Amino acid sequence: MKALLLRLEPIIWLLFGGGIMVGTLLLPGYLMTVTLGGPLGLLPDGALSFERAHAIASNPIGRVLLLAIIALPLWKGAHHTRALAVDMLGHHSDALVGSLLYAVAAIGSVLGILAVLAI
Amino acid sequence: MARPSDPHAMTPRKPGSTRTAPPTVPDDFWTRPRMLTYLLFDATGIVYLLVGLVALRVAWALGSGRAAWDALMQSFASPGYLIFHAIALVSALFVGVRFFRLFPKAQPAHIGPAKPPPPAVLQAMLYVAWIGITIVLLAVLGGVWP
Amino acid sequence: MANDGSGEMKTRTFVVTRFDPDKDQVPKTQSYQVSCRPEWKVLDALNFIKDEIDPTLSHRWSCRMAVCGSCGMNVNGAPKLTCKTSLSEYGDTVEVAPLANFPVIRDLVIEMDGFMEKFKAVKPWIIVAKEKAVDEGTNRQSPAQLAEFKQFSMCINCMLCYAACPVVAKEPDFLGPAAIALGHRYNMDSRDEGAAQRNEIFRGEGTVFSCSYANECSEVCPKNVDPAAAVNQAKLNSVIDWATSFVVKREK
Fold first, then answer.
1. pLDDT 10s digits, B40-57
2. Can you give the pLDDT at residue C1?
3. N or C: which end of chain B has fewer CB within 10 A?
4. Which domains are assigned to chain A?
5. Which residue of chain B comes nearest to C23, CA vs CA?
6. For position B57, what pLDDT does the model report?
7. Looking at the domain covering C113-244, what would its CATH class be?
8. Which residue in chain A has the smallest CA separation from C209?
9. Residue from the list C115, C170, C176 with its beta carbon closest to the beta carbon of B6
10. Do B30 and B52 share a structural domain?
11. Do residue B47 and residue B96 come from a single domain?
């Protein structure tokens, strides 16, 4: 398992890098509207109605951005949580913990692709 | 006054001729302010994982129809979700600030013929991009444009 | 903080880690009262202890001017060069312990061989496919080319970075800041042709990707080498090398 993780490390790092860069660039705008502004009633009427949200998300650019907001934070999250686990628990559990975390990120990314395509 | 590192930290393959005491770190190694900031930075990984999974719910709801979407927006208004997403926002800002500070010096002097901009310029570019993208998203998702 | 001898003598308590493998199961501490001159560094106090109070104390030191890298120790929990660290930074009690994350041979003397193994593993020398003949002349390198790696060549191997790194504390295989910085120094040297070999080592067991960019190494480096920059540059270079290795056939 450890050997496999080592071999995949460059890909994992690229996904993590994309995750932290693009994910962090996108998250404030998404969080301030879809998850906070909207539910708190701070946005104009109809800003995130189903019709409008669906129209944005079914636009090709919208699909890509939504997929980015799903998948990229997962890879950043998995990679840093793994680092925290090594710092807290040591390296013996790293192969298992790392694999589990990246599996979550990978499965989440695939589900994200499917979900975004289904909009 | 010390706690153990990994028992094999910095240990040579060939043992020396005398018994050594195992490697340790100071008691406050993990709790000094700079180290705590770094551990917090890593801990935002947990937040990012959850944010991604919740965003998956957003996409799923959009693909499932109006009822699912309205229900999700309702549940986002619950205190639990609001607190979580507020923490997520603070985390993203914290990550951005630390990452943009550390990013410029992580660029090699050149990749092939390409050279990166000077560190201060690069950091400014990152912040401009961050603010610009956030404004666009606020406008679009906030109902202002189009 | 005048260093002109105009200050007062100050008595401090030094709580020093002691360990004699022939006598002690585990390290313990021993306290010494020392009347310190105002301009003293930590090393001066340690030498005073050894010369005047307890000749059994063992510690490494050499140049007294922060270029040899011998005198690294943990002082009040932080890795320092004791020859460079003024006592005026500290209060009545100063704790001196061996460098963190290293096995301890005796007292304040740590086992260095683990570091030497990682050091040698990155092939820290100019690698060329074919050595130039003497009559072909010297290698030529412009100031701009030198500037690409010079900072990373300033390492004095004091190992403070290893004592500060949370990954070194937990992952024994990790090559560590100084070794990776040195390998990166050679990768960025225009005379060198060994980047492919070193990048493979960087992706191997001691993987550079174990680094989680805590940046502690660069915070404690007494020579401003900035090993964190080197390690994270090395990550990107290794990935590019890995990607291009699928496209460009390499001679082994």
1. 999 999 999 999 999 999
2. 47
3. C
4. 2-117 (1.20.1300.10)
5. B19
6. 97
7. mainly alpha
8. A9
9. C170
10. yes
11. yes
Class of domain C10-110: alpha beta
Cα separation values, A80 from A15, A86, A100, C212, Å:
12, 10, 13, 8
- Could you read off the pLDDT tens digit of each residue along chain C, which spans 252 residues? 455 556 789 999 999 999 999 999 999 999 999 999 999 999 999 999 999 999 999 999 999 999 999 999 999 999 999 999 999 999 999 999 999 999 999 999 999 999 999 999 999 999 999 999 999 999 999 999 999 999 999 999 999 999 999 999 999 999 999 999 999 999 999 999 999 999 999 999 999 999 999 999 999 999 999 999 999 999 999 999 999 988 876 654
CA-CA distance, B102 to C29, in Å (whole number)? 38
Shared-domain flag, residues B60 and B127:
no
- Candidates C211, A5, A16, C231; CA nearest to B45 is A16
**Å from A107 to nearest chain B CA?**
10
Residue C189 bridge partners (DSSP): none
Q: Does A12 touch chain C (CB under 8 A)?
A: yes
Measure the N-to-C terminal CA separation of chain B; round to a whole number of Å: 62
**Assigned domain for B31 exists:** yes
In this structure, the answer to whether residues B116 and B97 fall within a common structural domain is no
Residue B53 is assigned to a structural domain of this protein: yes
Q: What's the total number of domains in chain B?
A: 2
For residues B93 and B52, membership in a common domain is answered with: yes
- Reported as type and span, the H/E element at residue C250 is none
Contacts of A20 (CB under 8 A, 6+ apart): A76, B95, B99
How large is the ipTM?
Answer: 0.95
CATH number of the domain that B88 lies in? Answer: 1.20.1300.10
The boundaries of the domain holding residue B117 are 108-146
**B35 and B77 within one domain:** yes
Q: Looking at CA atoms only, how far is residue C17 from chain A in angstroms? A: 25
Q: In chain C, what residues touch B107 (CB-CB under 8 Å)?
A: 233, 236
B79/B119 same-domain check = no
* Residue ranges of chain C assigned to CATH 3.10.20.30: 10-110
State pLDDT tens for residues A11-42: 999 999 999 999 999 999 999 999 999 999 99
pLDDT one-digit tens code per residue, A103-119: 999 999 999 999 999 99
What is the C-alpha separation between B125 and B131, in angstroms, rounded?
Answer: 10
Q: What percent of chain B has pLDDT over 70?
A: 99
Residue A109 near residue A78 (C-beta atoms within 8 A): no
